[in-house]
């Protein structure tokens, strides 16, 4: 069976607290003006005139991210640029993507020297970019930190994160739902780069969710978020495990190699859950002609959300759907499970591997 009402309820309860805010960034409908026949109370505040998407003061936002050598990172960059283009009051300065932390530091220093109004930064390495981000903040330039956190809270005005732990919880909950009651089920895991905190968080969430239904990871390998790494790690896994009931692969980009290894081995006795939410995986889910049955979203909208938030902060606006008058300090996005039942809701914004 596919994701049931029970699964949706469990995910909503289990992840609601860590998902933080999925609120829209425009004014809510309760701010609409009353009918002309009704006079507003003298003490009532003026309604929002068109909401936060109405043009404001002209601002310049600097954007820097890693090299787009991965489908998800390419989607991150494209979405950020597309979001900025929606606003006539935003000029976006984009630095060339790089995986060299020192070069990215110099890009941020250029933004500081240019006196941009805000910086959106997806760092190659959060710790390495912390000092220059603090320098920008001390210069009065608000920094929006995306995806990879800085090592100091003083380095960013706003941090936008995916939910790595929540991804693991979502994947484990789905597998528990599918294998219900099979205490002897063999569950395998194909992780990303084990030294990264994000991989560790995903694995921890997965393990915690499986414990809830009496399952555990029987076989585990780590790849490197590349197609080649996914293929070699999966070949190793399949060789070591003659029987598997379910696999969670952390990353849909490396999943291209994972699926190649599965095809080469001629194995199809299991179902697989992906991670991140690529279009090619969603196409397979929709077709039903694959071992891939679901994937867990790791939003590629994070930098686009960062652009939108940087605009609000630089223009002194608030988030229209909140009572709070300031943009929150940290926003964590939700990690929903995509199945054949709901794939049409997500496929339009999926990235290409």
UniProtKB/TrEMBL annotation:
One annotated GO molecular function: carbohydrate binding
Species of the source: Flavimobilis soli
Segments forming domain Periplasmic binding protein: 61-317
Region Disordered: start-end pairs: 31-51
Sequence ranges of Low complexity compositional bias: 34-49
Transmembrane segments: none
Family: Belongs to the bacterial solute-binding protein 2 family.
InterPro entries according to UniProt: Peripla_BP_I, SBP_2_dom
The protein's name: Monosaccharide ABC transporter substrate-binding protein (CUT2 family)
């Amino acid at each position: 069976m596919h994701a049931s009402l029970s699964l949706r309820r469990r995910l909503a309860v289990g992840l609601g607290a860590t998902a933080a805010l999925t609120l829209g960034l425009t004014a809510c409908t309760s701010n609409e003006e009353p009918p002309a026949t009704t006079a507003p109370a003298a003490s009532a505040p003026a309604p929002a005139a068109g909401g936060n998407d109405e043009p404001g003061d002209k601002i310049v936002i600097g954007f820097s991210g890693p090299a787009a050598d991965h489908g998800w990172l390419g989607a991150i960059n494209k979405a950020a640029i597309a979001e900025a283009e929606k606003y006539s009051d935003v000029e976006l300065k984009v630095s060339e993507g790089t995986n060299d932390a020192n070069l990215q530091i110099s890009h941020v220093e250029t933004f500081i020297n240019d006196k941009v109004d805000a910086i959106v930064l997806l760092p190659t390495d959060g710790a390495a970019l912390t000092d220059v981000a603090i320098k920008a903040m001390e210069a009065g330039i608000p920094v929006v930190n995306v995806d990879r956190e800085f090592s100091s809270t003083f380095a960013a005005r706003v941090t936008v994160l995916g939910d790595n732990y929540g991804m693991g919880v979502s994947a484990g909950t789905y597998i528990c739902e599918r294998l219900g009651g099979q205490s002897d089920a063999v569950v395998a895991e194909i992780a990303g780069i084990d030294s990264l905190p994000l991989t560790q968080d995903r694995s921890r969430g997965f393990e915690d969710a499986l414990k809830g239904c009496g399952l555990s990871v029987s076989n585990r390998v780590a790849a490197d978020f590349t197609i080649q790494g996914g293929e070699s790690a999966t070949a190793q896994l399949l060789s070591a495990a003659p029987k598997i009931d379910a696999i969670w692969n952390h990353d849909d980009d490396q999943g291209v190699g994972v699926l190649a290894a599965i095809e080469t081995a001629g194995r199809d006795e299991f179902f697989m859950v992906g991670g991140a939410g690529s279009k090619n995986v969603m196409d397979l889910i929709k077709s039903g002609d694959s071992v891939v049955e679901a994937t867990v979203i790791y939003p590629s909208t994070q930098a686009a959300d960062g652009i939108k938030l940087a605009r609000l902060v630089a223009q002194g606006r608030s988030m229209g759907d909140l009572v709070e008058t300031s943009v929150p300090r940290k926003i964590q996005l939700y990690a929903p499970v995509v199945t054949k039942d709901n794939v049409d809701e997500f496929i339009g914004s999926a990235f290409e591997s």
